[in-house]
Amino acid sequence: MTGAETARVRGLVKEFGDRRVLDGLDLTVRRGEFTALLGRSGSGKSTLLRVLSGMDTDIQGESTVDGQVSMAFQQPRLLPWRRVWRNITLGVETGDARGVAERALAEVRLTERADAWPRTLSGGEAQRVSLARALVREPDLLLLDEPFGSLDALTRLAMHRLVTQLWERHRPAVLLVTHDVDEALALADRVLVLEGGRIAAEHLVSAPRPRSIAQLSELRAHVLSDLGVNDHEAA
Ligand code: ADP
Ligand code: MG
Q1: Is 45 within 8 Å of 145 (Cβ atoms)?
Q2: What pLDDT score was predicted for residue 232?
Q3: I need a surface site. Which of 24, 109, 119, 197 has the fewest CB within 10 A?
Q4: Domains of the chain, earliest start first
């Protein structure tokens, strides 16, 4: 692996029983690059993220990550019996856990919720806590598995801005799984489509941020067609 790469996957095969979900998948993630991964439900997106995170090592082929990996999920998975700030620093070794948590909460604009219990948070707030928790681990690779899927449209747009800002400030490589083509086009440098157990298509998105989806309608049509969706049906 070269110094310019954060993750390298070669010939990755993942089977569950006799079902082959990933079938010789190759993927390179460069340092600081924002990649979105699209694919139909059951195509293996979460499986790929679990392999990259090191949670699943029962694989064939190569999967290497250089540096620290953090993951945030569609469900924030906060521990209900820990206050927000404790959830953020759980498992982090530091002398000043409170200070670390407060700085991370300030970054996601939730300072005032440090002492709240998770069940009192809105969906968007819980997602911001989940992001803060991923950030305190100073990841070189940030894996986001449909993190905004359960949020309403306005909260989702606010989260897009927040994630873009955090990415610009910290520059981790990001691999964002989403089923939302517009989200992928708004956020990522590169949009990949997972199909048949491999990366079946790749589109580079060079438009400057913040982006308007109207500028990207041609690319949008290509990506939808890669996903087997007719643009007119989807609209
Ligand atoms: P995606 O995230 O793209 O929707 P997943 O990676 O979750 O898809 O799952 C891909 C396929 O692998 C699905 O058919 C799913 O049922 C199967 N699968 C995932 N995890 C397991 C598991 N632990 N045991 C058996 N089958 C699994
Ligand atoms: Mg999934």
Answers
A1: yes
A2: 60
A3: 119
A4: 5-79+140-234 (3.40.50.300)
Residue 67 has pLDDT above 90, yes or no: yes
Q: Whose CA is nearest to atom 23 of ligand 1?
A: 16
Cα 146 to ligand 2 centre (Å): 7
Pocket of ligand 1 (CB under 6 A): 16, 21, 39, 41-47
Nearest ligand atom owner, CA of 21: 1
- Tell me how far CA of residue 151 lies from CA of 124, 127, 145, 172, 199, in angstroms: 6, 9, 14, 24, 27
Residue 39 Cα to ligand 2 midpoint, Å, equals 9
Non-local (6+) Cβ contacts of 25 within 8 A are 9, 11, 12, 13, 48, 61, 194, 197, 198, 199
Atom of ligand 1 nearest to the CA of 39: 3
Distance CA 74, CA 71 (A): 10
Per-residue pLDDT for 235 more than 60? no
